[in-house]
Amino acid sequence: MTFGKYTSKSFKWLVENDVGYCKYIVDRHMKEMRHPEKRKTINETQGWHKSWEAEDSGLPKQDIKWLKEDEERGLFLKPRPFSDMYGRKRWRKVLKSEKMWFHPPEMPGVVDGSTVPVADSFFRHRVFFWRPVGVWRYSVRCTKPDCPAKDNPKAFLYRCGYGNTVRPICDINGWYFMLTEVLACDACRHLTLYYSLIFPHLNYCNIVWASTHPTYINKLLIIQKRFLRMISHANRYEPSAPLFINYSLLSINKINIFKTCLFMFKFKNYIQNLPSSFHNFFCVNSNIHSYATTKYFNLPFCRTWKHQSFITYRGPHLWNSLNKSLKSSPSLPIFKKHLKNFLIISSL
User: Fold this and answer.
1) 41: nearest Cα among 91, 104, 114, 111
2) In terms of residue numbers, what domain contains 10?
3) Among 33, 124, 307, 336, which is least packed, fewest CB within 10 Å?
4) Within-domain flag for 315
5) Domains of the chain: total
């Protein structure tokens, strides 16, 4: 069975467990075969947004009817039959693809006594459906400055549904309403997918656990590279370093460096905002000796690699290795921006 409440069950199981339902299906099928003209059909208006019918923010009621039903002036062509995945006959209305301005039917002129026009026919409005890709077939580039496909000459926006906002606009000829199609960037949507599914797991408490031995981190790094190749449609053997640069992403190791340096910047400049347990976490060289040095923090003695992975050693070591322009950033947002750009192009 591929439909109904017993989906995925065999016909033999249906006969053995629910004969009444089996008889109902057979009788209904025989009835549809004897009277095919009474077979239920479902009309669909492909492209129509339900929010356009909202009372407070949608189209006026007098405009909804002619936009959906008027084949000459409305949004849709004549209904076309098609078969769905179950073989049932359906009727579908498709949007017109040759114009963007839609004018309402003309107001009635001379009125005789037999037919009285409804009041709605005098208060209809024009509708402008902005569809540069759907109608003009125009090639639109992504306008985001950090788009991963900004250097790809063949990367264009594609249609991704229609906007749910109806915009009333007033010009010199009166009011009209504007509908729009939604354009999406394939590369930016894949980047959103990465930040939704992968990045939260790599970023959560990264400063605590990501400084462990590379044997454990490399397993997560392989998964991160695999997902990055998947969203960029790259070959499995293609180097991942150019992909990280193209998408402006940090590997799991660089995320740990970023988080650690961020904590050190807060300790140096905003120590009053940190919990009191961190106030004596690091030692400053100026408190030990008075001669000039380029290293702000004092490195504690650590003989083993395990102790060198602690933040008490790793934090001062990373901070002292940063260049002077980064460490002298005037604010936290500027420091984060410059540090991320530095880590993206660096080979740490």
Assistant:
1) 91
2) 1-29
3) 33
4) yes
5) 2
